[in-house]
Structure formats: C-alpha cells, structure tokens
Amino acid sequence: MTATPAAATPAVSAAVSPSAAAPAVSPWRGRDLGKRTVSYTERDAILYALAVGARADDLDLVFEERLRVLPTFALTLAQWAPDALGALGAFDITTAVHGSQRLTARRPLPRSGEVSMTARVAAVWDKGGAAVFDIEVNSDHFLATWSLFAPGSGGFGGERGPSGPRRPEGAADQRLSVATHPEQAAQYRLLGDRHHMHIDPEAARAAGMPRPFLHGLCTLAAVTLPAAGALGAHPADLTELEARFSAPVFPGDRLTVDAWHDGPGGLRLEASAYGRPVLTGIRTRFAAAPAEPPAFDTEKPSDARLQQKESSDA
Fold it and tell me: Among residues 167, 166, 115, which one has the least CA distance to residue 144?
C-alpha cells in the first residue's frame, strides 16, 4: 500500500463562581489532521484477510476472482491518522495505548484502488492522570474512531467522557473459540502498523511486555469472522463494530469468546485468554444476517475456526 488549533477555554464571568465554570477544553480538540489518499491492490486485501484468520478455502476473501474486501481492512488504510497525532506531540508515543476502536462501514471497499480520507481530533477527555484522544477518520466508505489512552496528558479540567459499556447480563447465548497463530503479528504488521513492539522482543520488553504481542486491531478483526458465522452472515457484510482493548494477546493464544444476540444481525461479545478479558464491550452488526439467529447444536463441534464448547470447563 502507498500513501500519497485549538478552541480557547471559555472565560468565567464575574457573576459566575469558579465552581460553576464550564469544563476546560483541550487545545488538541478539533485539530485537523489533514487529508490522505491511500492506494492498495487486491494482493493487499488478500494478505489482510489471511493475517486476520481467513483460510485458503474462504475463496471470496482470498481469491481475486471472487474477492470481497473485509470492512476492517479500512482500519489499516486509516492507521496514518493516530500516528500523525502522535508525531505532532499530543502525547508520549512510548506510553500511549490503544484504548478502544469504533468502525461504521458505509459502503463496500473496492477490490483495489484508492480511498481518500480526512481526519481530526473529535474529542479529548480528561481522566485526571491521563487523557483519552478520539481520532476520527472519515471517508465515503467508512467512519473510524481510535480512542488513545495517554498517561500524563490529563488534568486540564475537561470532561471525563463516557464510561465503558457493561458486560451483558445473564449467561452467554453461545461460546466461540478463536485461535491465533505464532506468525500472526509478523504477518499483520506488513499491512501498515509496523510498531516495533509487535515484532522485536527488545522493543516489547521496553513497552513492559514479556514478548512481542498481537495488534489489538488484528485480534478484533479475527473475532469478527466467527461472529459472522454465528449469525449465518458473511464477514464482508459487517456494518458496525466497536470494542475496548483490555489486555494484550500474544501470537498463538486461543481466545474464548462469549456471545449474546443483540437484535437482527447483531452480537455483543467478550473475548478472554487464560481466564482474563482481552476485548470487552464488543458490538458487531452485519447487514445481511438473517432476522432470526440460527439454532446451534452444542452437542456437535463446528469447524476449527468456530468451535463451540459444551461448558466453561471444556
């Protein structure tokens, strides 16, 4: 693939006490991050599908004659925007982490071609010792928002922002199993996110990790494939996606994914590895899913990519 300031803090009237003053506004809020046109080929879209878990027999994801591009591929095309904000000095790039991600797919991505995008800082939330930067990337094909948690950038007196979604009540309707593989981070980084911590053991240790770890967006995209299968939908029909990143996933980990049906074409999910949540507040929706979810026979195992467990102890 190839890639071709601030609102002032409101003044406090003499008739208004300081305690009643409006919250402060970060100087980064509203910052225009510019425009970018990114080109890609069918080969890039196929490599992406393979990197997030598509198999050789998923011909409409890996064979150019039938190719449908996964909507989450858009997040690799738009990776330049959060990187651009970090390069401007909004936060310490060595300590900031990807907190959550949202994606709305407006229309299918072409098999190959160019996508033009604009980006801006939609919001900056004050968490006290840290700030959360919402970076919005807009195009005719999608709207994507990165939320970056930046230690040391808070305390400016702004609003705290919305709280995270809660885990759905009651037992999950289904339990899925998603396997990652040891080479997955090395493959995914070729699609645009080449931060060293995902490939270099020394860089990973410097970031506080015992070894290189999987990109959060790779893990999230990998979960959407069995989510589509659970609904009888096609993964390329994804229209909405959001999630919070709770803990790292290491290449080769197997994820347990609890799923709750959420209306026609929708699922809410939570993914765990070794008993700890790694993705929370996941919400997916697929345009072409059936009105009624398929019935699942928990006595019969499904394929290697979408395995059902008979119990939490299995």
Answer: 115
Which of the following is catalytic: 44, 126, 193, 258?
193
Q: Is the pLDDT of residue 293 over 80?
A: no
pLDDT higher than threshold 80 for residue 13: no
Tokens representing 14? 């003499």
The per-residue b/e assignment along 275-306, b for 16 or more CB within 10 angstroms, e otherwise, is: eebbbbbbebbbeebeeebeeeeeeeeeeebb
Q: Which residue has the tokens 């981070």?
A: 185
Burial class, 15, CB count within 10 angstroms (exposed 0-12 / middle 13-18 / buried 19+): exposed
In this predicted structure, the answer to whether residue 82 has a pLDDT above a threshold of 80 is yes
Token reading at 164: 């995270």
C-alpha to C-alpha distance for 177 and 182, rounded to whole angstroms: 16
Q: Under a CB-based contact definition with an 8 Å cutoff, are residues 86 and 98 in contact? A: no
> Which residues are 116's β-sheet partners?
37
* Phi and psi torsions of 37, nearest 5°: -115, 125
pTM of the model: 0.85
Strand partners, 48: none
Is residue 300 scored above 60 in pLDDT?
Answer: no
Q: Of 126, 109, 125, nearest to 117 (Cα)?
A: 109
Active site residue 141: no
Q: Encoding tokens for residue 35?
A: 């425009």
Whether 198 is a known active-site residue: answer yes
Please give the pLDDT value at position 305.
43
Catalytic residue among 44, 126, 134, 198: 198
Largest CA distance in the chain: 72
DSSP per position, 126-148? E-SSEEEEEEEEE-SSEEEEEEE
Contact criterion met (CB below 8 Å) for 222 and 179: no
Q: Is the pLDDT of residue 244 over 90?
A: yes
CA distance 96 to 80: 16
* Nearest-angstrom CA–CA distance, 239 and 284: 8
**pLDDT (tens digit, 9 = 90+) per residue, 155-181?**
999 999 998 888 999 999 999 999 999
